[in-house]
What we know:
- By secondary structure, this protein is an alpha+beta fold.
- The chain has 2 domains: 21-157, Electron Transport, Fmn-binding Protein, Chain A (Pnp Oxidase, Chain A, Roll), CATH 2.30.110.10; 166-201, no CATH class.
- It is built from 8 helices and 7 strands; from the N terminus they run αααββββαββαβααα.
- It has helices at 8-15, 20-24, 32-40, 86-93, 122-126, 152-157, 174-181, 189-198; strands at residues 43-50, 53-60, 67-70, 73-77, 96-102, 109-119, 138-149.
- Strands 2-1-5-6-7-4-3 form a 7-stranded antiparallel β-sheet, with helices on one face.
- β1 and β2 (53-60) form a beta hairpin.
- The longest helix is centred in the C-terminal third of the chain and has 10 residues, at 189-198.
- Residues 31-150 form the Pyridoxamine 5'-phosphate oxidase N-terminal domain.
- It comes from Azospirillum doebereinerae.
- InterPro entries: Pyridox_Oxase_FMN-dep, Pyridox_Oxase_N, Split_barrel_FMN-bd.
Amino acid sequence: MTRPITDLATLEALYGEPGAPSLAKEVPQLTPGYRALIEASPFFVLATSGPGGLDASPRGDGPGFVRVADERTLLIPDRRGNNRIDSLRNVLADPRVGLLFLVPGVNETLRVNGRAVIDADPALCESFAVDGKPPKSVLAVTVESVFFQCARALLRSRLWDPAVQVPRASLPSTGALLAEASAGREGGEAYERSLAERIPKTLY
């Protein structure tokens, strides 16, 4: 038997009231502490929504790759990828975005909600160049709310604990995953070899 919850009153009765600190930590702009977390982060997940559905995309580079322009504005270079541009397609249709920042070794995460625009200004893109290679565009996010998430999820998962790291070879390879998903049309060992050679040359 299932007991689906279909109304807000039932849901709130099940969980109870949030604690005062859980509400007080959410603010409409970046505090100095929140800014420090973003500038120390080499990785975040970008959530978007559009006509084709939802998307959660990993984004990473050296710490500070997300530029804090001011307390309400983040600038994010769109580094090279697979050219699916799912996130960017969504932003064109619906500018609302959610960002979840992680800092290696830190169990608290930082959540940012806001609205984004895609900026392809050459001077702006050039300011994010690495090895002489600028991104094709920069995502400019206007912050609407920001707050830190407590450490429980990362403590339960032991995400930063080397003792629980999974050997990559114990799971299907990228070539095997692609071959399985495409019914053998793509992937395999040749794909794995070319990917291993291609990725270091196409990071930027």
